[in-house]
Amino acid sequence: MPGLLSSMTAGRGVIFTLHHVVHPSGDAFQPNRLLEISPDFLRKAILRIRARGYDIVHLGEVAERLKDPKSGRFCVLTFDDGYRDNLEIAYPVLKELDCPFTVYVATSMPDGTAELWWRVLEIVVASRAHLELKLNGTPMGFPCETPDEKYKTYEAIYWWLRSQSQDDQRSFIRDLAMLHDIDMASMVRRMAMSWDEVSVLARDSLCTIGAHTVKHFALARIDADRARAEMLNSADILESYLPERPKHFAYPYGDPGSASQREFEIARECGFETAVTTRPGVLFTEHLDHMYALPRISLNGEFQAKRYLDGFLSGVPSLAFNKGRKLNIA
Question: What are phi and psi of 18, to 5 degrees?
């Protein structure tokens, strides 16, 4: 079916979202595996994308590609947050294959102050057979003995945390980390690139460094002035460490509940050239009028196979997800 429909649905290009590139783990409980792909799959994906006739280009080329009806189809590879494995594991593959890529850096990552709350929650659930927590003031017990119980517990608490205000979410996770002797500062220093390491990537012409806020807040869940400060301050901080001010921005989480019309307008006001969401979709010429709401498709660690990649490139899954709409920006 993707092959039959792709001429109508594949659009002009695709921006892919990645986070971690790591070697596979045999752990039975991996709730954040969707954020991880292997270096072997990264290599295969790059080769497959090119074999399908797509150029892998710099993010700054997107507008020109969309303007030129004669240009071929293209892909952009983007990595969110600023993880050390992007440098240590992904970069050698990208460098060997001469593959352009973008890394969106939340500046609290190289600063060592990021609060990776989803990872804290994973560690806590993984380490317990039973968990007692107070949610919305109500004590609740969660079974965590089997992998299935751990997944159910993680999902329940994760989505509850996503529903909370950003300040309440972070306060809860700080208390949880303290209660379970988790050193969040040590965790982020281990997982995130330092400023010197970010600079290594920034000096390579293959790499574009983009902004991703300071504290990785869901911007739609904080007031407009604070959201604007998160965008501008992240660009200011990146500019102070790197050769140039970032021209491109990624909304943390990037779903409609985390970034919408207000945030798109703020990104424009902040002077970025593009801003990307995680709303699934391929790129059409019409996106030239929506450069602050560009869709991306996740290279999800649960779907590391050629058939899934081919499906993503076809645009059919995105069209189905978006109920037939080419643009998913409302």
Answer: -130, 160
pLDDT on residue 319: 80
- Assess contact for 313 and 47: CB atoms under 8 A: no
Q: What mean pLDDT do residues 184-194 have?
A: 97
In a domain, 170, yes or no: yes
Strand spans (E) along the chain: 13-18, 20-21, 36-37, 55-56, 74-81, 101-105, 130-135, 138-143, 207-211, 248-250, 274-276, 297-298
Q: What is the spatial distance between Cα 114 and Cα 189, in angstroms, rounded to a whole number? A: 9
Work out the average pLDDT over 68-82: 95
For residue 206, tell me if it sits in a domain: yes
Domain boundary among 166, 185, 204: 185
Entry pTM: 0.95
d(CA 238, CA 185): 20
70 and 32 in a common domain: yes
Q: Which domain holds residue 203?
A: 2-111+192-321
Strands (DSSP E) found in 163-216: 207-211
| 88 and 237 together in one domain | yes
Token pair in block for residue 73: 């189809």
**Tokens 């574009």 appear where?**
208
Same domain, 140 and 162: yes
Query: What is the average pLDDT value for the chain, to the nearest integer?
Result: 95
> Is the domain of 40 the same as that of 126?
no
Q: Judge whether 248 lies within some domain.
A: yes
pLDDT in tens, 224-267: 999 999 999 999 999 999 999 999 999 999 999 999 999 999 99
Q: What is the mean pLDDT of residues 268-289?
A: 97
Alpha carbon distance 240, 260 (integer Å): 29
Which CATH number characterizes residue 34's domain? 3.20.20.370
Q: In this structure, is residue 85 part of a structural domain?
A: yes
Average pLDDT estimate for 61-72: 94
Q: Are strands 20-21 and 36-37 parallel, antiparallel or unpaired?
A: parallel
Least confident of 46-50, 107-111, 138-142, 317-321: 317-321
